[in-house]
Design brief:
The protein is 54% helix and 13% strand. It has 13 helices and nine strands. The strands form two sheets. A seven-stranded parallel β-sheet has the order 3-2-1-4-5-6-9, sandwiched between helices. This is Putative oxidoreductase.
Length: 297
């Protein structure tokens, strides 16, 4: 049975949600942790909870390669190297392509795609040295797009293919690469969207079959820890997401469109109206953290 004990893991988006819960689970397995997030308060609290001998917290914006590299270097200096990477940092925006704030759309792409690239780029020399494993956190959205979430859908499809490319590039170094694909998980990202937009809740209600159901963070963490131990190529949470991946061509065909198209003329204008009233195209939490990214002081 593969063991994680005494491994060193780099986790981005570690302050809350899946990142924080996965970090706690890994710590219980004897893993040392390099924790990166822009949200310094809860990140520092998590590191204090886990202990200075177990976790190093570095407040950094994954959009800033130099900052990520500095965090990686500090982690390598403290723990000796990096065996595992969980490229988890990600956000979402709200609103149609016609109405979403362009700066917010760009911020989603920057965090969700460039942030993954920066994380991997900075950690890769150490991961190669230790013949480690990289888990890129994509989504069900890579296979099944939803209206009003174009930036999120695009970014998650992009990093899935980034993982596919990376896997080919590093296999001869003894490094394995996986991609994780989850349905809606009960994280701050989903909780904030539900609280902000009745249209988002309506969208979930009309998605066919289980596509609109929300899954627990614990189920996601169990799958992530199992993947990290087993160096898995694909992670699906829940398991039925694998079927959607195999049916991607059908899901994105005219046949697949039929389940959503009748609802879009009602849901999308409502979403755009609600976004306009909010005065923002993402959660209030993300807006506050964007201010930190612009002015880290």
């Amino acid at each position: 049975m593969p063991t994680l004990r005494n491994k060193v893991a780099l986790v981005t988006g570690a302050a809350r949600g899946i990142g924080a819960a996965t970090s706690r689970a890994l710590a219980r397995k004897g893993v040392k942790l390099i924790l990166i997030d822009l949200d310094a308060g809860p990140l520092k609290a998590l590191a204090a909870e886990l202990g200075a001998d177990v976790a190093l917290d570095v407040a950094a914006d994954v959009c800033d390669l130099a900052a990520v590299q500095k965090a990686v270097d500090a982690g390598v200096a403290k723990f000796g190297g990096i065996d595992l990477v969980v490229a988890n940092a990600g956000i979402a925006s709200y609103g149609s392509v016609m109405q979403v704030d362009p700066a917010t759309f760009k911020r989603v792409i920057d965090i969700n795609i460039l942030g993954v690239f920066h994380t991997v780029r900075a950690a890769l020399p150490s991961v190669i040295e230790r013949k480690g494993y990289i888990l890129v956190v994509s989504s069900l959205a890579a296979f099944a797009p939803a209206p009003g979430l174009a930036a999120y859908n695009t970014s998650k499809a992009g990093i899935e293919h980034f993982a596919n490319t990376l896997r080919l590039e590093v296999a001869h170094h003894g490094v394995a690469v996986g991609s994780a694909h989850m349905s809606w998980i009960d994280t701050p990202l989903v909780q904030d969207a539900k609280a902000d937009l009745t249209a988002f809740n309506q969208l979930l209600a009309v998605l066919p079959g289980p596509l609109g159901k929300t899954t627990s963070v614990d189920a996601c963490v169990d799958a992530f820890v199992d993947a990290l131990a087993g160096r898995k190529r694909r992670v699906y949470v829940p398991r039925w997401v694998e079927l959607v991946s195999w049916l991607k061509a059908v899901v994105t065909s005219p046949i697949g469109d039929r389940s959503l198209l009748p609802h879009v003329p009602e849901i999308l204008p409502r979403m755009d109206e609600e976004v306009a009233k909010l005065g923002r195209s993402t959660s209030a939490r993300n807006v506050a953290l964007d201010d930190v990214a612009v002015d880290p002081k």
